[in-house]
Structure formats: C-alpha cells, structure tokens
Amino acid sequence: MKAKKKRNMARRRDSRYYHAMLFLPVLFLFIYHFLPIPAGILMAFENFQPGKGFFESKFVGFKNFEKLLIHPDILPALRNTLIIAIEKIICNLVIPIAFALLLNEVKVKWFKRAVQTITYLPYFMSWVILAGILIKFLSPGSSASSPGFLNTLLVNMGIIDEPVYFLGSNQTFQQTIVISDVWKNFGYNTIIYLAALTGIDPTLYEASAVDGAGRWKQTIHITLPGIAPIIALTTVLAIGKVLNAGFDQIFNLYNPAVYASGDIIDTLVYRLGLINKQFSLSAAVGLLKSIVSCTLVLISYKLADKLAGYRVW
Length: 313
Hints:
Elements: H1 2-34, H2 36-43, E1 46-47, E2 58-59, H3 63-70, H4 74-104, H5 109-120, H6 127-137, H7 149-156, H8 173-197, H9 202-210, H10 215-226, H11 228-239, H12 247-253, H13 259-262, H14 265-275, H15 279-308
Antiparallel strand pairs: 1-2
Helix pairs in contact: 3-15, 4-8, 5-8, 6-12, 11-15, 14-15
C-alpha cells in the first residue's frame, strides 16, 4: 500500500513539469479565444462606438441581425462558404484514405518514408508562403512576365490554347481553392489513417487470405471497418467547421474579381468590421456563425455515436 502511494506521488511530481509546459498555451487560449467572447456577444446587440466602449454604446437589440438578413453580400458569402467547405470536407476525407490504403501496400520502407515526408511537408507551411508560391505557379503571365509553370505546361501539351487565370476567374477559383487545400493537408491526414491501419490485427488478413479473400475484399471487410472510428472522428471534426471555408487561404489568394465565387463569411466579416468599420454587424455575423457551428458539432457527435459507435462523452 505504501509502495503504491509512493508511486502515485512520484507520478504526480513528474506530471508537474508537463502541466507547467501547458500553462502558457492555456493562458494564450484563454486570453485570445475565451476572454473576448462576452464582449463580442454584447457588441452584436449594440450600435458599437469605439469611443464609447462596450458599456456606453447604444443597445439596439436584434437590429443588427435584421440588417444582416437584408445585406446583399450575406447570401452569396454563405453559398460560397458552404460549397467550398463541403467540397473540402469530402476531398480531405476521401483522398487521404485512398492514399493511405495505397501507401500501406508499399513494402519498401525507405520509399514509403520518403513519400510520407514529401506529402506532409506543405502542411507545416503557412498560407502566406504557399499563396506566394501558388500565385507564381498559376500565373497566366503578362507583357512583363511569362506564364507560370502550370499554364506553360498545359499550353505546351496542347490542353489549352492560351493561359488561364486560375485565381482571377469565377469559373476556376473555387476548384483551385479546394485542390490547393487538399494538396496542403492530405499528407498530414494520411499519417492519421496510416497510424489507424497499424492497429488492425494482422491475423485477420491471414485468416481472410486462407478463406480466399483478395486485397479488395480485405480492404472492404477488414481495413475500412477497422479504421471506421478514426474516419468518424475526422468527419465529426470537419462537420463542425462546415462554416469555416478557410479564411487564411482565401484571404491570401482572392481578389475583388472573384468576390462572386470566393467571398466567404469570414472574409465578409473582415471587410465589414476592419475595412468598413461596421463592428456590430460583423459581430452579429460571427455570433450567428458560432451558434450554427456549435449546433452542427452536437449533431455530428450524435450521428457518429449512432453510425460508427464513436463517442466523445
């Protein structure tokens, strides 16, 4: 009994350092994510004036939400947000799973590790850096500069007759955003599914091979059910972000020419709040978005529990 208490005390002493390491991140999270919430909620119901502050600005009730409903840019921004976000969710779910299944079949370890490293490197780069790379890579060129690599390649191969402005056309902007987001994130997501694949009992594959099952049937009846909880988890987390189409990415890549297809809720809030100084209206948009996102998270948790047996609480 005494030995057990000593072990527990030693474990607690060791954990002090881990808790100390978490102090600054938790403090940062509290200051920048939780502390502004009451002020943001209050601002959504006021005619906020920076000179008067939160408590002296005039309370207007739901007038900001009424303005929001008739604002000409809110519906296009909501449509673009949903389209881009849903396409990202689907592609960032299907492509990493398929790639993980293919990579799991590779038996040459050095090649497998090299492919993993190359594919997940973009995940650790910010969109500020990647946006500069993509703008150059996808550039249609001008009188002062030659087309980017992709346009040059497509023209030389005869696929297109003249360079395409991928980031300046409403016909191609959304697809470019989705593809570039998948390119950035699928390597990291692949690692998650590869880790899940290692948890599947190898004897299941051996038994199925004895029964005559090929690789395709093993994938359908063993591999996919084995990683179903992880698929449910990533889907749940993604559904909760269905109204987050990626502010960092779109803000660094879009321009006024593609507002019709590229303007999302977050970029609209940025322009309303910081550019046009409509603080209360932008706060109302943010509050409404947060309520919808929270509702979607709760619904997705319930669906994950019923469909895949995954539970968070």
